[in-house]
């Protein structure tokens, strides 16, 4: 997939830039990969918090309605 983003198969993704940003600065796979990983981690933490919060609300609701 990274090759498709770079637009070529003739690229060494470990050291060659995949392209340039709007400011003309080189963008490497490690730049994109790092952001994706952190977004995934934050999303998972958020979902765990939501699920725990919903479960605690169900427990409180069950106690109040009992």
What does the largest sheet look like? 2 strands, antiparallel
The coarse silhouette is rod-shaped
User: In terms of per-residue confidence, which ranges show pLDDT below 50 for 5 or more consecutive residues?
Assistant: none
Spell out the helices and strands N to C.
HEEH
Beta content: 5-15%
Alpha-beta content class: mainly alpha
- Give the distance, in angstroms, between the N- and C-terminal Cα atoms: 54 Å
Mean pLDDT: 76
Number of separate strands: 2
Rg over C-alpha atoms, rounded to the nearest angstrom = 21 Å
By DSSP (H or I, 4+ residues per run), the number of helices equals 2
Strand order of the largest sheet: 1-2
Describe the secondary structure blueprint for this structure.
Blueprint: H1 2-6, E1 19-20, E2 26-27, H2 29-65
Antiparallel strand pairs: 1-2
Brief account:
The protein has 2 helices and 2 strands. 64% of the residues lie in helices and 6% in strands.
Structure, described:
With 66 residues, this protein is mostly helical. The protein has one domain. It has 2 helices and 2 strands. The protein has helices at 2-6, 29-65, and strands spanning 19-20, 26-27. The protein has a two-stranded antiparallel sheet. A hairpin with a 5-residue loop joins strand 1 and strand 2.
């Amino acid at each position: 997939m990274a090759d498709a983003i770079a637009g070529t198969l003739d690229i060494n993704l470990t050291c060659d830039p995949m392209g340039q940003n709007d400011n003309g600065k080189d963008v490497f796979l490690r730049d994109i990969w790092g952001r994706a990983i952190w977004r995934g981690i934050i999303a998972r933490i958020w979902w765990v918090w939501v699920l725990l919060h919903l479960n605690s609300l169900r427990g409180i609701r069950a106690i109040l309605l009992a």
